[in-house]
Here is the input.
Amino acid sequence: MIGQFQTWKSFTKFLLKTLPVETANTYKHKFVRFIKYWHRIGCPVVDDHVKILENKYANYIINTRRYSNRGAKNKEVIKFKRIVDESPGLDNKDDYLTWRRMAMRIIKNDIICYSLSFSITKDLTLRQKKLVEKYKNL
Here is the structure.
């Protein structure tokens, strides 16, 4: 793993502790929503990845055995019961629920969490406008 940390989970929690409170809370809010999405709804996964997930992470996933209504409708929906630390062979290919992905959002300063499928919210847009107004004369 990374230096003194044994897992991506411990590294993610360390990173969150080093951030300003407001920033850490923003990440935590996004991460909670990301985790809940994978627990409750799940995502469509290609057959090759379903096999890998079932072989390596059977205790972590639920294969709903139903096909997604999205896209070509040819992918099975997978839900995660628990967060995987990392998924070698699958990381950076698709959106899986891993501590590594969450840690990388912090490292890359991706406060919007675009790569976790989030987009900018109305609240963040209003906050940005207020900050621009506040500091426009500097």
